[in-house]
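Thread: quick sanity check before group meeting

JM: Hey all, I'm pulling together slides for Thursday and realized we never actually wrote out the predicted structure for the chain we discussed last week. Dropping the sequence here so it's in one place. If anyone has concerns about the input, flag it before I start.
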Amino acid sequence: MATDWLGSIVSINCGDSLGVYQGRVSAVDQVSQTISLTRPFHNGVKCLVPEVTFSAGDITELKILQIPGPGDGKPNEDLQHTELGIPGVGPHLASNQNGAGKLLKKPTSSSSAPQAIPRRTDLKNQDAMISPQPQQCSKSYMERHVESLNQSKGFRRRHNSWSSSSRHPNQVTPKKSGLKNGQMKSKDDECFGDDIEEIPDTDFDFEGNLALFDKAAVFEEIDTYERRSGTRSRGTPNERPARYRHDENILESEPIVYRQILVPQNTNKEFCTDSGLVVPSVSYELHKKLLSVAEKHGLTLERRLEMTGVCASQMALSLLGGPNRLNPKNVHQRPMVALLCGPHVKGAQGISCGRHLSNHDVHVILFLPNFVKMLESITNELNLFSKTQGQQVSSVKDLPDTPVDLVINCLDCHENAFLRDQPWYKAAVDWANQNRAPVLSIDPPMSEMEQGIDAKWSLALGLPLPLGERAGRVYLCDIGIPQKVFQEVGINYHSPFGCKFVIPLHST
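JM (edit): ok, ran it. Output follows.
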């Protein structure tokens, strides 16, 4: 009778237009040829309505996924000879391997594609799980997963209440895979068998959890560690930093001595390199004595001027942009440098720098006041500079009105302080301060002597002088003084330059 099928879980294929429905049979009407499903699923998704009704003409294929058990008073062995009583659906039944499902299909209809499996949240609300496709179709991973869940949950729950005599003769007892604490637990159940009810319903409080994080305390701890390790401070580090630079060797045979330069007269001003090597400053008298001894041994003024000009021009080229700015493929305007020089050796150093810059396709404007008698070194440098494309002017009025790319200051001198009172000096200082261009000062005087132009960078020669704050960031260049010359004037010297001729210095 048709009422015998009430409570069975079936799958109804209504073709491509309506899709596949799955649910529990709630009513079968032989007169109107309809069948109703309660708590239905449409293409694997739970329907919003509690019950749907189908006519026999809409049904293309009907599969019985689960029939009522013995506890409902309906023997399994009699169901193989029972029909739904719907003429539109053929009476052909096929049993699965475990006898839990039956298939009713029209003779002319082809088997449908594997159906989508409902989500676990929807399966939890059902009394029984939906079993996979018949055995003649190959099982996918999801079908095997649902079957294992069906065996581990549904079968375990029913088999514990059934006696061994009430089982269907054709029903196969599921295999036990892995015993733990006396309970059967399959691998899929261990991976996917978590209870949904254990998931908390309330949302995570991100704002409240973030308020528990004390950022100020964490940053203070980081700053304390960096100060202790010497990674942030520019002094002699107390211990080796945790990170290595590309030019540092990890394996070292002996500890590093950071104070490798010792001077006979200690000054209050000290610098250090990027590697942490201490470079002390020297007084002007000791620096003058060092140059005098070097000149006695063959390091003449001309050699020093050439070395200073090369190092200063390399630094200026880097400040102007280096290969990004000075590229033959770039068709933009050439960088412009204003060179302010006085009638002394410092001015000759600036003229030598301007000659090298002009040779590297930099537009150089040299300012040098007119004097009746010039030093021989200045005359020689001017003679070489006149062979370049550089421009020489003697009046501040001939300097550019628009800002230039760089101003190189060589106006100041260590001895002749009276030059600051000259009109040309004051006019050149006013022009530099109004031009708003960055200033590079070559071999500036000591901090005791007031400077009219604030420099952004300063280049010291050999060893630095105790420069003040107005000197800006200090760089040191190697002018080729041999090590024994330093020893002759009482300086224990070890070169801090490494592979470079110009290195930056940092105040300790």
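AS: nice. The chain has a mean pLDDT of 76. The CA atoms of residues 295 and 362 lie 32 Å apart.
JM: adding both to the slides.
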